[in-house]
Amino acid sequence: APLVVEADVRAGAIAEAMFGAGRAYRIFLFVSVGTGIASCLMLDGAPYLGARGATGTMASSPISVPCELCGHISRQTLEEIASGPGLVARYNRLKPGMAKTGQEVLAAAVAGDDVGMRVVQTASEALESAVGLLVNVLDPEAVVVGGGLGLSEGPFWDGFIASTRKHIWSEVHRNLPIVRAQTGVRAGFMGAAAAAWKKAAQIQ
């Protein structure tokens, strides 16, 4: 039997293109926010692979933004700031041992916890600036958001919508649709199965 290997974010994007919110669009950007943060540009039902097949790693390199007030240059990656483990680590630095999951940090923010609210707000700002940059560069018809954190309710999602639009430079696509993944947290499994099915159909 043939073996098919696919990146998890691409599998999620394929699921959304075939069964979810991406069905309505020819070109859309899929962003997954959970344990990690990744993206996939979908073109006519297929993931854009790039020259080396290494597209999608949007949050693993240092952001390196200098502070004009103190001169400090942060070397944090976006995943250290806004992923599930990133939220937990940042929250626990201020409240040691109080959170084990990103969802617990989100719950603290919803409950009015000052530290939780600050951690979630700054994470949203960092994430949305990255997504806004991708929209500016790639000009998709829509952004589809998945992953455990990406699908969460409350301040993370609300902040995501408002802040992403703020970071989109052009008025032409500032109001593009930003929607939740309809295949939910099962997107990766569904997309992997679909990719394998497509490969098998080509071989036959």
Distance between the termini: 12 Å
Number of helices: 7
Report the portion of residues in β strands. Answer: 5-15%
Largest sheet, strands/sense/barrel: 5 strands, mixed
Q: What's the number of extended β-strand segments?
A: 5
Structural class: alpha/beta
Q: Specify the oligomeric state.
A: single chain
Output the helix-strand order: HEEEHHHHEHEH
Q: Overall mean pLDDT score?
A: 89
Structure, explained:
The chain contains seven helices and five strands. Strand 2 and strand 3 form a beta hairpin. 45% of the residues lie in helices and 12% in strands. It is globular. A five-stranded mixed sheet has the order 3-2-1-4-5, with helices on both faces. It is an alpha/beta fold.
